[in-house]
C-alpha cells in the first residue's frame, strides 16, 4: 500500500552550477497582499542535487522534494526542461579574447605616412600641462 502523499515539485531556473553535483535553483512565485489584492513577485532559492551535473546556469529544471542530503540540500533535479543558449556557449573551448582583440585593432589601425605634413590648425608642440615648468614652484619660494 502506498499511503504517502505525492512529493512536492517545483520548476525554476538554475542560477549557479559551480558546486559539484549541486545546483542553485531560483523559483519565482507571486504573493498577493490580502488587504489590497496587489500581486508582488517573490522568489526562493533551493539547492538541488544534480547527480550527472547536467544542469547549467540559465537552464529551466524541475526539482522534487527529497530527504535531507546535506545541510542545505532538500531537493533533487528530476529533469532539464529547457536548456539555455548561453549555457552551451559557456561550456565550449575557451577563447583568447586578448589575442583576438589585438589582431582586430592591428588590422583596423591605419599606418601614418612618414612624409605627411601635420593637419592645419594642429599645434607643433603640445600645450603646457600641469607638470610644466611655468606652473611649478621653486624650492626657494616655499615657506
Shape: elongated
Our count of helices gives: 2
CATH architecture of the domain at 9-90: Beta Barrel
In CATH terms, the superfamily of the domain at 9-90 is Nucleic acid-binding proteins
Determine the mean pLDDT: 82
Structural classification: mainly beta
Q: Could you spell the SSE succession in H and E letters?
A: EEEEEHH
| Poorly predicted regions | none
* Name of the CATH class of the domain at 9-90: Mainly Beta
Could you give a short account of the major beta sheet?
A: 5 strands, mixed, barrel
**Helix content range:** 10-25%
> In order across it, which strands form the biggest sheet?
1-2-3-5-4
CATH topological fold name of the domain at 9-90: OB fold (Dihydrolipoamide Acetyltransferase, E2P)
Give the C-alpha Rg.
31 Å
